């Protein structure tokens, strides 16, 4: 199965066909039970949470697996959250370990449960998303989270199966943890085709309709400006400040940047706001939006930008491509793997001049925008749920039969 290559012609057409039960579940008639441990309930809105929920949903729809998801009914960084994570979750894992075939931990934060599940006689699969790169964390919250994950890294090799989102993440994991390569399986994010709620016949008409809806619902006035969109939390590794520095250099009055996502690092958000105010950059911050409105944001945009320095996969660039929005993104291994040549890359993501040049070259070249739009939509086909689910199911069956 091709997860990380450009597809075209007959291959692309084949991917758009649903996977039958027989193809998704080869050589098995049983009904394995999987219990999927998530994080705090709002985590379902994060990229990591969406990955697990999408995979669990695909397994339910396309296979005969009996999949149950459990989450923590609490906000992040609260006493209730940590009480459930470190006390109630282990107790629940012990309870279900013997009655289910496999427990899946939705991210590396839950690695501490691996030996507990084994002691209870169960099997465990860990979803590992990314290794934090030194120097790409700033502020107490980011640094504490990084230290916490680093502390439990030695437990990752003890899992019965480790799922990563891309080849680059697998290589990073092998460099920091002694995981047996045969236990690592690459399973990218699956994407429902839900980010294109409008189909007005042409990209221009679709953008106009999406902008009208956002103005009516959220009061966001874009007009005829060239809209740059970025979705995700404000963290140091997301490198958002560099994009603002690039826009300050461009000083184009026909551009507006829309940032959708929470300020995980408030210092980073304030730096961006201060620079925007001082440089006259048109910018709109949306803390959080509904799934429906997110589709309108993608379709209202002319260009999607991701300046991130490090990702486990990077959902938003594929969401943008699925919505028909051309992408400019960092030239990093994970994006080269997931998008190939279907996006415009910036070789040095830390250099504002590179972003300014890329933005101008795409904004002033409608034919290139049309080309990247079509390439992106074709590339996104390989991440449809039934395609990803077939590979995931084979990996889980191998783990269960081991």
Automatic annotation (TrEMBL):
A Pfam family reported for this protein in Swiss-Prot or TrEMBL: Glycos_transf_1
SUPFAM superfamilies according to UniProt: UDP-Glycosyltransferase/glycogen phosphorylase
Domain of life: Bacteria
Coiled coil regions in record: none
One Gene Ontology MF term: glycosyltransferase activity
Residue ranges of domain Glycosyl transferase family in the record: 224-377
Matches recorded under InterPro entries: Glyco_trans_1
The entry's keywords: Transferase
PANTHER family referenced in this protein's UniProt entry, alphabetically: GLYCOSYLTRANSFERASE WBBK-RELATED (PTHR46401:SF2)
Name recorded for this polypeptide: Glycosyl transferase family 1 domain-containing protein
Taxonomic source organism: Caballeronia sordidicola (Burkholderia sordidicola)
């Amino acid at each position: 199965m091709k997860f990380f290559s450009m597809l075209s012609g007959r291959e692309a057409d084949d991917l758009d066909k649903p996977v039958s039960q027989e193809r998704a579940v080869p050589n098995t008639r049983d009904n394995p039970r999987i219990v999927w441990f998530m994080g705090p309930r709002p985590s379902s809105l994060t990229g990591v949470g969406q990955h697990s929920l999408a995979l669990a949903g695909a397994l339910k729809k396309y296979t005969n697996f009996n999949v149950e998801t459990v989450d923590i009914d609490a906000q992040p960084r609260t006493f209730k959250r940590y009480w459930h994570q470190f006390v109630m979750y282990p107790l629940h894992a012990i309870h279900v370990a013997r009655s289910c075939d496999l427990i899946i931990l939705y991210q590396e934060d839950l690695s501490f449960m691996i030996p507990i599940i084994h002691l209870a006689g169960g099997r465990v699969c860990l979803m590992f998303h990314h290794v934090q790169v030194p120097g790409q964390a700033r502020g107490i919250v980011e640094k504490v989270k990084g230290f916490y994950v680093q502390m439990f890294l030695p437990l990752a090799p003890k899992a019965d199966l480790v799922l990563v989102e891309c080849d680059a993440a697998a290589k990073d994991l092998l460099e920091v943890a002694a995981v047996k390569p045969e236990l690592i399986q690459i399973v990218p994010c699956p994407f429902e085709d839900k980010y294109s709620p409008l189909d007005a016949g042409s990209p221009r008409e679709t953008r106009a309709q999406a902008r009208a809806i956002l103005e009516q619902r959220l009061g966001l006035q874009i007009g005829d400006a060239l809209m740059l969109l970025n979705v995700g939390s404000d963290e140091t590794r997301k490198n958002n400040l560099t994009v603002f520095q690039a826009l300050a250099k461009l000083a184009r009055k026909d551009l507006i940047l829309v940032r959708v996502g929470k300020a995980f690092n408030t210092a980073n958000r304030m730096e961006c706001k201060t620079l925007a105010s001082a440089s006259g950059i048109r910018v709109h911050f949306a803390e959080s939006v509904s799934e429906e409105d997110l589709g309108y944001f993608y379709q209202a945009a002319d260009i999607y930008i991701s300046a991130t320095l490090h990702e486990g996969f990077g959902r938003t660039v594929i969401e943008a491509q699925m919505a028909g929005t051309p992408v400019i993104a960092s030239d990093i291994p994970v994006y080269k793997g997931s998008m190939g040549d279907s996006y415009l890359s910036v070789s040095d993501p830390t250099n504002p001049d590179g972003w300014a040049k890329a933005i101008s070259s795409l904004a002033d070249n409608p034919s290139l925008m049309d080309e990247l739009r079509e390439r992106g939509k074709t590339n996104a086909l390989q991440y449809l749920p039934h395609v990803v689910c077939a590979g995931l199911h084979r990996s889980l069956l191998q783990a269960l039969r081991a």
